[in-house]
Amino acid sequence: MKKSLLTGACAAVVLCLGTAGHAAVMLMDFTNIHPPIVGIAGYNGTNFTSPGAVDDFTAADGVIPSAVFHNATFNILTGFAVDSTIVTDTNNNGLADIGETVIATLGAGAFQFNSPAGLLVTGSFDGATMTSTVGSSGATLTSSNTKNLILSPGSGLVFGGSPVASFSNPESLTIGLTGVPGSGVQVSAITHPYGPTVPILGAHLDAFGVSSGSINMSANFVVPEPASLSLLSFGALGLLARRRHG
Asked: Are strands 187-188 and 200-205 parallel, antiparallel or unpaired?
């Protein structure tokens, strides 16, 4: 099911391309939100949810004229569900205390970037990991090739007059969630400790909202040269989404 919680003002997305042979880096940044909005994304108690509409997705390498994709969006399509959650009980008291590490394991998920020009990027993974601490106002969700992360360019991702042909390994996805309101990241339903050295508590990750955050992806990618259709490798690709000031 497609999930989207971000409404209202849009953000800007910039895609930067650099020299051949370097990795691509893509960043969407939702930290500059004015006024702050609680609930642009987060965790509903079962699944993570995605931001909604953003503004411009721009491809540039400083040489070829930039390619701008207006009104781009990022959305979770399926999955992003938490399978299990543990807490490292460093105080060894059987409780989830403030500052103790929280690790949530996610199952499969799929997501995409779109614009009126067409599909920009799709992605999927077999698993991901969220890390935080009890009471924290932030969390980090990651996936990579070890979790079978696959990023693919859509037909709408055109740079220098040519569609991006493919992404290749290494690929990674990092979603930073910040601005968790109230008491921050919390867990409940603590089960008995287990673990040989530092006791590990089983727990349930409680629902929380997010007022800001960022999405960072990296991969190598190639673009066919229009004149010869030979594959050229570009790198240092950056994707920046910045919420417009209201």
From this structure: antiparallel
- Dist. CA 242–CA 230, nearest whole Å: 34
Per domain, the residue ranges of the chain are 11-174+188-243
Q: Is the pLDDT of residue 185 over 50?
A: yes
pLDDT of residue 88: 93
List the beta bridge partners of residue 111: 76, 123
Residue 99 has phi, psi (to 5 degrees) of 90, -10
For residues 113 and 54, is the Cβ–Cβ distance under 8 A? no
CB 73 within 8 A of CB 29: no
The per-residue pLDDT for range 123-161, each reduced to its tens digit, is 999 999 999 999 999 999 999 999 999 988 899 988 767
pLDDT band at 22; cut points 50, 70, 90: very low
Phi-psi group of 197: left, alpha or beta (phi > 0 → left; psi -120 to 50 → alpha; rest → beta)? alpha
The separation between the first and the last C-alpha atoms of the chain, rounded to the nearest angstrom, is: 30
Q: CA-to-CA distance for 135 and 42, rounded, in angstroms?
A: 15
